[in-house]
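Predict the 3D structure for this chain.
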Amino acid sequence: MEQTTTTSTKGKGLGIAGMVIGIVALVWSIIPLIGAAAWWLALVGLILSLVAFFMAKNGGNPSKGMMITGIILNIVALGLAIFWIYKIASAASAMVGGLENLQDSLNVHMEELKNAMDTTQMH
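Done. Predicted structure below.
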């Protein structure tokens, strides 16, 4: 009598998809400034990888390597995308602060110019 053992393949397709998306998201997130847009791809890949991992765990699939790799790649890509979002937001904030200082300086100079014009018209 032969005993056949079949290993479960639950979550394998989602695991591969999550890992591939993780690779693409990581490459995308490395690119300066453009990498900020990789957050949504990394989030989708992370969700797919997590779903695949829990499917494999509950379905008795012993090979969870691709799922774990996808989780790690997507977390790193998401972290890099968040880093770029932070850098863009802080640069924009600095620009707004610089523009406010410029506006204040222009207002002071305009007031000085108006006062100077008023004093010359009186003489």
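The helical segments are 12-30, 39-59, 65-122.
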